[in-house]
Amino acid sequence: MMASSPQPVHVTNVHRHLTSEFHPNEKMGDTVLPPIDENLKQYRFKTETEHNSDDGGLQDEEFEETPLYAAILTYLSYAILCLFGWLRDFLRQSNIEKKRGAVDPNAALGFVPLYQSYESFYTRNMYTRVRDIFNRPIASVPGAQVEVVERVSDDYNWTHRFTGKTINAINLGSYNYLGFAEKSGPCATDAINSIKKFGISNCNTRTEIGTQRYHVELEQLLADFLHVESSIAFGMGFATNSLNLPVLASKGDLILSDEMNHASLILGIRLSGASYRTFAHNDMKNLEEKLREAIVHGQPRTNRPWKKIILVIEGIYRHDEVFDYKVWNDNIHKCFTSNFRSNHIYQYNIEYGS
What is the pTM of this model? Predict the structure, then answer.
């Protein structure tokens, strides 16, 4: 979901909001918004170094170094698996051993192969040996506990058959982090009632079913909650990033992207047709250098100013460092970000979340 409107100044430290009201008709100055360095230094997140220096703070992760003999045995075992894999592939090609894997029927027709050669080799000869511990089907909702369907293999994991039993297990790897996938409770009850009232096609695109009353109500509720003029709801988070960034950026624009951004943001940047550069993850000095360079030198070859410069980051890590910019040029018109602002620009605040 994405909300957009001219926004009052918000300097955010996770759930605590420090607000200094700003209105377009007022003069921007120290009386309205204190210097950003002084404001953020008082309320910013501590850096990792500061955390590590505090007693009881976040400590560096420690990993036991792999012993030399363990590393040698691992590489030796891997090499032996490869040798036997090549031998068995030769036997399969010679029809001495039965081919149990899937065969691409279009391979002989000149189509591009579905798998790379080594990927297919690895799947046949290495992954198949341990495939029984992956992709385990369940017979329950992915809650704190799950019922794992028991299965066995009679041909070394090429195929599996179900025994009809289930194994009760603690779920440590669910994607159900919001608790929506439950068979009882308010989420399940409201979902059932919504299906009875609106049907099952209300998650379709608006180009198919149009804008419905509940879409308008949801967007107004989101706008009220976020204290913005309006909002727009999308049915898929990946598509929100990948298909809306091209609306904001085009040829002649520059996008500065954190090197750790999600694949959906990267896809949206590439689809936009804009030029893009990456900066070191959470490195504000590196970002400032890239900004200064972009503003001073402009576009390659022509040195014309960029139409606009857009900063693309992810909110999940936006408070790891201080945004200690000294001066931002007015040519920076928009930021694709959440609760981010400089005292030298006025932009549209765009928030995206699930």
Answer: 0.52
